[in-house]
Amino acid sequence: MPVSIRESKRALRERVTANRGQLSAQALAAGARELRDLALELPEMATARRVATYVSVGAEPGTGPLIEALYERGVELLLPVLLPDYDLDWGYYRGPSSLASAPKGLLEPTGPTLGAEAIAEADLLLVPALAVDRHGTRLGKGAGCYDRVLARLAGQAPAFVLLHDGEILDIPIPKEPHDVPVDRALTPSGIHHLRP
Ligand SMILES: Nc1nc2c(c(=O)[nH]1)N(C=O)[C@@H](CNc1ccc(C(=O)N[C@@H](CCC(=O)O)C(=O)O)cc1)CN2
Ligand SMILES: Nc1ncnc2c1ncn2[C@@H]1O[C@H](COP(=O)(O)OP(=O)(O)OP(=O)(O)O)[C@@H](O)[C@H]1O
């Protein structure tokens, strides 16, 4: 990939990460509750029996309250398990004690995993990101994990990027051939339709 694209993505990641570092614990907790309420109200959520999400860490848009609410509803929750080649395997959420610290500061499900292709069985996908632009180009952690997941999903289930307010950028994020656009984002202030 051209060095300039890699470099501008890196600089953008640094900027967003620094901004996230300024968010207070109270703001993060409030944002997570707002994301829960919005996600639970999605029409697509009403019919979803299996939802793939991630266990938020640090200053990421929080998924804790949503995971608990969906678990209580009896929705099956698929959580990612990072593989050595940065592809993602998946495991079920089986309650708070079923998560364990994993490499790279992640929290992952313990117990058997289902294989990378299990994502094809999800009815709805909640995707982590650092930012997205108005065209739906997504900036992730830079390992291409979710580019592979979204390619596998092939639009078969709705995908929503979870972000903090201010992380939907008016300037375009440099797009590479492997980047799979997303068409919707959730921030604490609401649902945002993007135009891939
Ligand atoms: N909470 C959470 N879980 C997730 C993701 C995520 O974004 N958030 N992922 C989304 O893809 C996958 C994990 N992907 C990762 C990809 C790269 C690195 C990584 O290279 N980390 C750097 C530090 C960068 C950072 O702190 O952001 C490193 O360890 O050097 C970590 C996780 C699956 N689980
Ligand atoms: N389908 C794929 N298979 C293997 N590697 C891939 C695939 N898609 C992307 N990659 C690799 O991932 C690397 C990072 O890509 P990019 O910077 O777009 O990640 P990102 O979208 O920020 O991260 P993520 O998808 O993990 O959130 C690239 O070097 C790319 O080669």
Automatic annotation (TrEMBL):
Cofactor(s) in the UniProt record: Mg(2+)
Enzyme Commission number(s): 6.3.3.2
Pfam families, per database record: 5-FTHF_cyc-lig
Reactions that this protein is recorded to catalyse: (6S)-5-formyl-5,6,7,8-tetrahydrofolate + ATP = (6R)-5,10-methenyltetrahydrofolate + ADP + phosphate
Any single GO BP term: tetrahydrofolate interconversion
Binding residue positions for ATP: K9, R10, A11, L12, R13, R138, L139, G140, K141, G142, A143, G144, C145, Y146
GO-annotated molecular function: 5-formyltetrahydrofolate cyclo-ligase activity; ATP binding; metal ion binding
Residues that coordinate or bind substrate: V55, E60
UniProt-listed PANTHER family: 5-FORMYLTETRAHYDROFOLATE CYCLO-LIGASE, ATPASE INHIBITOR/5-FORMYLTETRAHYDROFOLATE CYCLO-LIGASE
Family: Belongs to the 5-formyltetrahydrofolate cyclo-ligase family.
Protein name: 5-formyltetrahydrofolate cyclo-ligase
Organism: Phytoactinopolyspora halophila
Taxonomic classification: Bacteria, Bacillati, Actinomycetota, Actinomycetes, Jiangellales
